[in-house]
Write a structure and sequence with these properties.
- The chain has one domain: ABC transporter involved in vitamin B12 uptake, BtuC (Orthogonal Bundle).
- A two-stranded antiparallel sheet has the order 1-2.
- The protein has 350 residues and is an all-alpha fold.
- The longest helix is centred in the C-terminal third of the chain and has 27 residues.
- It has 15 helices and 2 strands.
- InterPro entries: ABC_transp_permease, LivM-like.
- It is a multi-pass membrane protein.
- One of its GO terms (cellular component) is plasma membrane.
């Protein structure tokens, strides 16, 4: 006597698991569009030889946005004080350069370590409340650091900043030039290396658990996921990334000011991530490109009221592209694919 299985139910559970694992591995592979995207910095190097400083700013802002995307886009931890880690990284390089330690790679490592340590210590406060309390905690940490930097003027320079930060040649061979050529290549290389690591991270089981925490925090402990440990880890990594971005800004500009710790920088970062699309990795990068270029063009066209037009663009994005540039594009592609499949099923003979 044979038993029948219900329609649509696999006879072997292992086959369903294998199919899901196969789909997951395919999604983790690099896509052709990704290779094309990373050709753009190379193209920009030759196409815009007089704008290396602007291109460096785009690369640094992209890394800064990537750091928040790991925290907000994947773990769902919103922050209004992410500039605290950015500023710590910048001041770390500034203090090193002022004391004769101008090696760029040493500055990046120490900036990442100190910012990550601050993120680790402050992450325990984030676990004690809801999204609103987390906003207040992150904002409070950034404001305290801002006032500390403003108070100890003998160390940080206060409102006058720290000019003339000495930065040595990269690997002892490549000096930073006044046109920003070396600084741009340096920033793009650091961005790519850290992006590659972040991509490996989000496509790992750790990254998938972060997605689960963002979608349903209460259910994940029942699946054996240590939620608090995951949040502490990703917050620490995101803080380290932000510290590296701040260090790059200080090294390429040879200057550090209180602006690196300002609330405006944190707010702009959140807008960049919303503009590009949170939770996609490339969303923060696209948002940084659009935001920095729009900022540059609008301020040049209308120096007095350029923020009005930038605000209008952001309002339109929220109204008509709530998933950001990348999220909306993916939704459009998916809906087009579904319509094509539905049309093919309708036209196919029964």
């Amino acid at each position: 006597m044979t038993t029948s299985t219900s329609i649509g139910t696999p006879s072997h559970p292992q086959s369903g698991t294998a199919d899901a694992l196969g789909r997951y591995r395919r999604s983790a592979r690099w896509k052709p569009l990704e290779y094309l995207f990373w050709c753009l910095p190379i193209l920009a190097y030759f196409a815009f030889p007089g704008n290396y400083l602007l291109l460096s700013q785009i690369a640094i802002t992209s890394l800064f946005a990537l750091s928040l995307d790991l925290i907000f886009g994947y773990a769902g931890v919103i922050s209004l004080g992410h500039a605290a880690f950015f500023g710590v990284g910048a001041y770390t390089v500034g203090l090193l350069g002022s004391n004769g330690f101008g090696d760029p790679l040493l500055g990046l490592v120490l900036a990442a370590a100190i910012a990550a340590l601050l993120g680790f210590l402050s992450s325990f406060l984030l676990l004690r409340g809801s999204d609103l309390s987390r906003l207040m905690v992150t904002l409070g940490v950034a404001l305290m650091l801002y006032e500390l930097a403003n108070k100890f003027t003998s160390i940080t320079g206060g409102v006058d900043g720290m000019p003339g930060v000495e930065v040595g040649p990269i690997l002892g061979m490549f000096d930073f030039d006044m046109f920003g050529r070396v600084g741009y290549v340096y920033s793009v290389v650091v961005l790519f290396v850290l992006f590659w690591f972040a991509r490996r991270l989000v496509y790992s089981p750790f990254g998938q658990s972060l997605r689960g925490i963002r979608m349903n925090t209460l259910r994940m402990p029942a699946l054996g996921v240590p939620v608090n440990r995951r949040l502490i880890t990703v917050y620490t990594i995101g803080a380290g990334y932000a510290g590296v971005a701040g260090a790059l800004l200080a090294q390429t500009n040879s200057f550090v000011s209180l602006d690196v710790l300002s609330f405006q920088r944190s707010a702009d970062l959140l807008l960049i991530l919303i503009l590009g699309g949170a939770g996609h990795l490339y969303g923060g990068l696209l948002g940084a490109i659009v935001f920095v270029i729009a900022n540059y063009l609008l301020s040049d066209m209308n120096p007095q009221y350029w923020q009005f037009w930038l605000g209008l663009i952001l309002v339109l994005v929220v109204l008509f592209a709530r998933g950001g540039i990348l999220g909306t594009a993916r939704q459009w592609i998916e809906s087009s694919r579904q319509r094509a499949q539905s049309r093919a099923r309708t036209e196919s003979p029964s």
